[in-house]
Design brief:
Helix 5 packs across helix 8. The protein has 12 helices and 13 strands. A hairpin with a 4-residue loop joins strand 2 and strand 3. The chain is of the alpha/beta class and 328 residues long. The longest helix has 25 residues. Bound molecules: zinc ion. InterPro entries: ATPase_NBD, ROK, ROK_cs, ROK_glcA.
Length: 328
Amino acid sequence: MEKIILAADIGGTTCKLGIFDEQLERIEKWSIKTDTSDVTGYALLENVYESFVEHVDNSEFAFSDVLGVGIGIPGPVNFETGEVNGAVNLYWKETVNVREIFQQFVDCPVYVDNDANVAALGEKHKGAGHGADDVVAITLGTGLGGGIISNGEIVHGHNGSGAEIGHFRVDHDQRFKCNCGKSGCIETVASATGVVNLVNFYYPKLTFKSSILQLIKDNEVTAKAVFDAAKAGDQFCIFITERVANYIAYLCSIISVTSNPKYIVLGGGMSTAGLILIENIKTEYHNLTFTPAQQGTEIVQAKLGNDAGITGAAGLIYTYIIEKEGVK
Ligand SMILES: [Zn+2]
């Protein structure tokens, strides 16, 4: 009998849930509201479990067919223990051991990882990573996050901070403060927030006329408006787009000499808003990067969009149980 994988991508407002088969093909997906009323995490996880039971009962499968449960969490996760060291979006201030709680409901293995890591795993297996063993995913959203897959496995590092690439300092002038408490992190100059930071910093200093002047004055600039105007030939917005692209290309070049990925997958709202951004990143990346480390490496757009999280959460079971242990 075919076994199934249960997957949960926990977010601040909704939890995306899914059932996958042993080939990591999705059988069903749905979502429930995130219960943030209980800071211990128990109520949230119990809701997820109950929703799984309901959906498995209504499928052709039984709960005894479940091979494992994979869970992605928006916070720092200790992959070995399943502990989450606080999660701002879920109002978890203390450590929550997600695996320990979920293991009270189920007999099968439970794997927990950070949401950026599982999204990278999703893109590796079913998205723009084409199943390659070395894939890096960079999410360009409100912030900048990422996941590194090396030799087929997620890079966690000794305390789980591996692939926290948003906090790599690229702005040595440290013009903008980061959420992490330090300044100059790439997130402050190359995320959607970073684009706005750069616009507000450079506009008073430059003599360019710009089509987005009114948006700047009204404090309503968005990354998308900047890239759209750059595409239309706005010199100031082209200047900003090049600055942002250069920071990201620099990050990609460091990643290339560190883990030499086959694919660097760019995802998040900014990657879809700005094809002009991706073209600029590729050009600068090829200029910057040590030649052997960039040979055969492709910078590509993410494919799975919002489904990267649940696919990758299921991918934890696929990677660490089916592929690694050969369990069927
Ligand atoms: Zn930072």
